[in-house]
């Protein structure tokens, strides 16, 4: 499990219970369409399983994860 996971929020957290909202926040997801790259670890897989109906997950290699450019803030 040396790869990475690309997690993308595809549905709203509105209507979800408190633990689902907290899990999304812990994953670093703030809005629909937001995407984060996380280590492929059992803890992260468990968090993703908790909100599986709200996110999509894609396994990527570590090399692919390094190629991803972070977005710049809009106000700069």
Task: Give a verbal description of the structure.
The protein has 76 residues and is of the alpha+beta class. The chain has a single domain, classed as Ribosomal protein L30/L7 (Ribosomal Protein L30, Chain: A, 2-Layer Sandwich). Helices cover 33% and strands 22% of the residues. The protein is built from three helices and three strands. It has a three-stranded antiparallel β-sheet with strand order 2-1-3. The protein starts with a strand and ends in a 9-residue tail after the last helix.
Provide a compact summary of the structure:
This protein has 76 residues and is of the alpha+beta class. It has helices at 18-27, 42-50, 62-67; strands spanning 4-9, 35-39, 55-60. The chain is 33% helix and 22% strand.
The major pleated sheet works out as:
3 strands, antiparallel
Distance between the termini: 37 Å
CATH level-4 homologous superfamily = Ribosomal protein L30/L7
Give the second-level CATH assignment, the architecture: 2-Layer Sandwich
Q: What's the domain count?
A: 1
> Low-confidence parts lasting 5 or more residues at pLDDT below 50?
none
- Name the helix and strand elements from N-terminus to C-terminus, one letter apiece: EHEHEH
Key words describing this protein structure:
single chain, 76 residues, alpha+beta, Ribosomal Protein L30, Chain: A, 3-stranded antiparallel β-sheet, 22% strand, Ribosomal_uL30_bac-type, Ribo_uL30_ferredoxin-like_sf, ribosomal protein
């Amino acid at each position: 499990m040396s790869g990475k996971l690309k997690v993308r929020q595809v549905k709203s957290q509105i209507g979800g219970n408190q633990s689902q909202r907290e899990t999304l926040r812990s994953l670093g997801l703030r809005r629909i369409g937001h995407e984060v790259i996380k280590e492929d670890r059992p803890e992260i897989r468990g968090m993703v399983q908790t909100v599986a109906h709200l996110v999509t997950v894609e396994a990527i290699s570590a090399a692919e994860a390094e190629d991803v450019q972070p977005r710049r803030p809009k106000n700069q």
